[in-house]
Structure prediction request, 454 residues.
Amino acid sequence: MKDSSKPELNMEKIVSLARRRGFIFPSSEIYGGLSSCWDYGPLGAEMKRNVKDAWWKAMVHDRDDMVGLDSAIIMHPKVWEASGHLSGFSDPLVDCMDCKQRFRADFIDSKTCPDCSGELTQPRQFNLMFKTFMGPVEDNASIAYLRPETAQGIFVNFANVLNTSRKKLPFGIAQIGKAFRNEITTGNFIFRSREFEQMEIEYFVKPGDDEKLFNYWLEERLSWFTSLGIRKDNLRLRQHQKDELAHYARDCYDIEYYFPMGWSELEGIANRTDFDLKQHSLHSGNELTYFDEETKKHIVPYVIEPSSGVDRTVLALLCDAYDEEPDKNDTRTVLRLHPSISPYKVAILPLSRKEPVVNIARDVYAKLRRFFSTSYDDAQSIGRRYRRQDEIGTPYCVTIDFDTIEDKCATVRDRDSMRQLRIPVEALMTTLQAKLNGEPFEVLPPGGKHWLGF
Ligand code: ATP
Prediction:
């Protein structure tokens, strides 16, 4: 069932807001753009960073069974031989013999061209890896690949991490980084692009514990998305059918989000068994095992892999947060982003550009920005400024006005309820911090009067 309170959303609205407000631009736009590549603008860069920080905090810093890694994008070409990407990382490609367009065979239903009904070629496998050359000579010996996933950087560093971190099973290695796939068909904005970012975990477990921990990770990852405010209704788990499973995978689920184009993959969670470590042992000649103190035996751990996309998470968050509501004779567009994801947590809005209001506002701005990403906006009417902040998802606006000079209070406005309260300037920091952390706020102002009741 879908959440009926959510307005029908088309992707155009998201693309338009993202462009208009500086979240996401087409790449190399002044040259006409580059198909399926995107640049994150000032607000998008903040938002994307917030997503990655939230993931790193929850998956690495808050856990004692996880460590991080940042491996190189270009790896030894043998890595891709061992992982199976050279021989098998391909999608079926068909060409239209009339209009010459190319399609992913598994993405089209008809036996003819979806655009011109022309005849299609037989499907042939197209390798998705980007090829390049290392060094000055462009020959077969210098071929290298841009990684199509971050996971292999983790597997090849298994022994390094194990020896230096001395972790015991089960433990995980987490990595965030760019990945590149020469996708046949791209589209749906940042959902499918050729350059994107992944957040991946390889969680090493004792064989036999894999099923239990696989189920644990399904729940863990789903609840991470809901902790960022994504509606439960818009998320679902979909188990892969037997014929969809990679040959090494024992089980795999996709976490799907209800994007404007329908249910689509946000994250894949797979039980990869001991396939990867065994393959790299075989191809490198280095034994990648774990010494089990209990049985005094070397074992090859199994791997549970939650593999998520940063860009798809950003897109899901934008879609989920987007809201339009009637406001007087107009429509208010609000991004109801979770505060941890909002590009700005607070906006300082002075009602005058003259002293002393501007001095107070500048002073508040200087103090708050040390603790939260804060914006300062003194252009146009206060109503328009509120609208602007609503549209980019700023949870709180602080207005400094002429009364502030006398009563030393500022107006704090809540994005979602639009309620406004006067709060002593000296209490802004603690008040906003508590609100943004979602903590119950019980500090009283001097004199004991309540000012918080959002
Ligand atoms: P799809 O079936 O949509 O092509 P996939 O199953 O190939 O995706 P995985 O290999 O499981 O994807 O990659 C893990 C995650 O990386 C995906 O869940 C997605 O969030 C992200 N991802 C993969 N390909 C792309 C892409 N071309 N653009 C943006 N994100 C991607």
Summary: Residues 357 and 401 are 6 Å apart (CA to CA). The first strand starts at residue 24 and ends at 26. The pocket of adenosine-5'-triphosphate is lined by residues 149, 181, 183, 192-193, 196, 198, 265-268, 307-309, 311-312 (CB under 6 Å).
